[in-house]
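for the writeup, i need someone to sanity check this before i put it in the appendix. the sequnce is what the collaborator sent (i think, or maybe the updated version? ugh). structure was predicted straight from it, no edits. if anything looks off just tell me and ill rerun, i have time this weekend
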Amino acid sequence: MPAERDRTYAQVLIDHLVIGGTRVSWVFMPEFLEPGPYVCRLEVGSTGDPQADDWADCGVEAQNVTCLVDPARHLLGGLVASTHYRVVVATGLAEHVSPPVPVFGTLPKRDWLECREVIRQFRLRNRIKAGSTGWLLKKRFTGVVPQANTAYAPTDYLTGGLLDTQREDTYGTEFAGGYYAPVPFEAALDPAGLDPRRDPSGARGTVDDAATVRPAMVVPYPPVLRNDVVILAGSDYRYYVGRVAEAAERRGVPYLARVELRLAPFSDVIYRYPVPGA
């Protein structure tokens, strides 16, 4: 759930069937008084990143309506329902885009306010106790596979398996660009530990997994999924997201999550991803 309400949309609601269509309805804020007609359309994306470039029109555009239906099935991301919708309304003065809304729905106002207060306190605690800030890179589910001869292609021509994890144009992924546009991110990281020991198998020599694996608590908006990347501001450490588990939810809507962050080796190509804002 977003931390703040949009100034155009009072609420965006989703009625979703796993097998079937999806109806998205909305209510404008009382102070939204721009002249019509209102040309409304629906967009669907595979992440909750409002700056992602995979938002696509779905359903049929209509005028002066308060709901639209997407007849197609969009369950991107396998078992994880990562699909998001947003409403775009064009008036005689401007175009208004709603915040992304997850396919698993939204909360009633009372629950929303209570969860927002929990998130506010969580973020306040992070600021007071030096929580970590940075950026979240959402890994692409789909995209353009760079065209090259099979000796240098990032994926196997027959199986689609990843061959080259050090390509700079894909940042070690299957698709050009590798990740969607970065979004601001904050987390409460557990203190790093020191526990050097010799690998029992002898294959890795002396290792210290406690220093490279950092559990953290996050607000999962946009959703944080395995293989996403977290860039910490200041230190510029890059972490791959491992296990993700819900830490708190209300009516099936998660609003806090526990994630496992694994420090990328300093030789990893992800360190060549430009620091946002630099």
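The chain has two domains: 9-102, 109-139+179-272. Helices lie at 109-128, 209-212.
thx in advance!!
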